[in-house]
Amino acid sequence: xxxxxxxxxxxxxxxxxxxxxxxxxxxxxxxxxxxxxxxxxxxxxxxxxxxxxxxxxxxxxxxxxxxxxxxxxxxxxxxxxxxxxxxxxxxxxxxxxxxxxxxxxxxxxxxxxxxxxxxxxxxxxxxxxxxxxxxxxxxxxxxxxxxx
Length: 148
Fold this sequence. Notes:
Helices cover about 85% and strands about 0% of the residues. It is an all-alpha fold.
């Protein structure tokens, strides 16, 4: 076998391994996204029927449904763009903290330091969202600026 034949064989093997590797990674990617999406839908339906079984939906139940909605939107955006929207994770955290604060107020019926701490955490997350939005508008990534 000559050097040129060996080099040609090496290039074909590299192309084949790249194709197979991309196929496996993409297959796992889509399988994982569908599994996460199915788990979100399953959990949301279970929570909804739990509320319907109680006959009433409290504000914490509604906020839980918003969390599921935000998680589903995040999976949908990631499926379409292959980019993880970090802001949605922050929105989920803000909603979860709000839900926790409401549950704490309903349980204790008195002002406490926990309310201030949770409120401060929500404010910090809101500020983080502002910084991310400002940064992405002022300093767009190269892939975002080249896309139509």
